Each structure stands twice: as structure tokens, then as C-alpha cells.
Amino acid sequence: MPALICGSLAFDTITTFPGRFAEQILPEQVHILNVSFLVPTLRREWGGCAGNIAYSLQLLGGAPVILAALGVDGGEYQQRIASWGADTSLIWRDPELHTAQCHITTDRDNNQITAFHPGAMSHAHMIAVPGKTERPDLAIGIIAPDGGEAMWQHAHQMHAAGIPFIFDPGQQLPQFDGDQHREMLGMARWVAVNDYEAKMLADRTGLTLAEMSRRENIAGVIVTLGAEGCELWQQGERSHVPGVVAQGVVDPTGCGDAFRSGLLYGLERGWTLERCVVLANRLGAIKIASRGPQNHTLDAGTLTTA
Fold it and tell me: Phi, psi (5° rounding) for residue 31?
């Protein structure tokens, strides 16, 4: 059944810095920070969390339904998504603003510095999550990084529609205060964050990961640890799922989104959370071996080994 993906659609401008950021930034001078990085390579890619998650979910054989905003320059992107066979009926085109733009610079250690212009994404709250009578087929959803007002409204609308969803605040986590995070945690079925975000979420809410996972509505808290895999918190208990060795480490952009597509695919099919994460780790490892967030492919063994 279809999965509703609420999040951003964006154009990614990706550059590579052949050195290390840490060697260019003097800790004792950060109060007067003024640095420039020579980036000899540049690519423009399709991106945005919703687009990236939908791309990998479609490759897996899922049925993504994207709820997101594109700008006046977004026609080609909408056509691209439709060419996969994905549902574009809930993509809205802003008549004035440009599509969101993300500028990413990656150093030799795969650290990233990102600048993001929201554009049409800031109006994504103008699209509403359909109710059960309009779309009774929506089996699962995800609240991925998007405009802050859109994330807030879509979480409430998805909860009201009875659609179980993953709360994935990502880089938008600082946009919400502790009360707002606790309210959204009270509506989500699962929470997916990286280790840095996990610490920030715990600090904002005053809840430990164990306490979050004990909430009656929460079926699991997933904390990604990069190459080290993931830790899972279920009913206050922690477990660890090892990572998958990538064939090559080429570009980390979109790895977290590929991971989330594996979660959605497995959860919609009723898999255990551990099995979902095994698949999700494999998706992340496949993606990191490919440049850009939407250029990787999957072979027949991806699902059979999960």
C-alpha cells in the first residue's frame, strides 16, 4: 500500500573540498570566522528529503506518495518523479518562489557544510494531508525535514487521519521547542534520528531515549550511527544492529534518506523493526557508493538478504 512522504523537494548543488575542514577552521578564532574553500568539483543533483526517500522506496518496489512543494522552476522535477511511476497528485507548485536549493560541500573525511534556501518549501503547509475518506489507501507515512509550519501541521493532520508515521526531524529539529517536540512525539509511531540529533532531541524534551521509547504510542526509536549501524530503543531497551560495509565511500549525501526508505518499506509490510533496520543499513551502504542522492541502483539481492 502507498506510503505518504511529507518533506522537501530541492535542487542540490554538491561540491567537494579535497582537504579537511578541521585544518582550515581555527577553534580559537570561530568568533571571527571567515573561511573560503576551493572546491574543484561541482554537480547539480535532484534532492530534498521527500524526493530522495521516494526514489529509493520506488526502487524497492514500494508506492511513494509525495506531499511537497515545488517552485516555478520545478516542472522538470515533477516530470522526473512521475516517470518513476510515483504518485505526484499531492505535489504543489508555488506560483512565485523558486524550488528549495541546497548547497553542500563535503571534505575528504565526509564531513559536510550545508547552506539551504527554502524557497517554495516555506509554503509547503498550504498542502493538506488527505483524510481517510479521501485516501483510505495510505498505510504509513513519514514527517521528514520540510518547512517548520508544514511539519507541524502535517504531523497533526496525519495523526488525525490515523496514519502511523515516522517522525524524522533531521536538520529542522532546532526549529521546534521542547513542548512542540513532546507534542509531536505524542503523535508519532516511530522516531528516526542520527546520534547528534538524538542528543539534541533528548536535551530539548528532557526525555532520555529510553523514556521516549516507553511512551505508549512509540513502537521504536531508531538512532543511526553511520558506518557503525544503528541503535534501537524499544520499550526502554537498547539493542544494536551492525552497519553494512560499503563497496566504496563516494558521497554521503542522501544516505539517511535511503535508510528511511528501507524503514518505510519494511514497516509497511509488518516486518520487525530489527529486520527493517537491516534493510535500511543496506540501502545506506549502497547509496554512499554512488554520487548524488538519486543515482544509485538496486540489485535483486537487496531484499533477499534483508
Answer: -70, -15
d(CA 259, CA 57): 10
Tell me the pLDDT tens digit for each residue of 106-151. Answer: 899 888 898 889 999 999 999 999 999 999 999 999 999 999 999 9
Angle (CA) 223-52-189 rounded to 5° is 40
Spot the catalytic one: 87, 94, 107, 257: 257
| CA angle in degrees (0–180, nearest 5) for 190-141-14 | 95
Residue 297 identity (one-letter amino acid)? T
Q: What are the residues whose beta carbons fall under 8 Å from the beta carbon of 198, sequence distance 6 or more?
A: 209, 221, 223
For CA atoms 240, 244, 249, 255, give the dihedral sign: negative
Q: For residue 179, indicate whether it is catalytic.
A: no
Q: What is the share, in percent, of the chain residues with pLDDT greater than 90?
A: 82
Domains observed in the chain:
3-25+38-304 (3.40.1190.20)
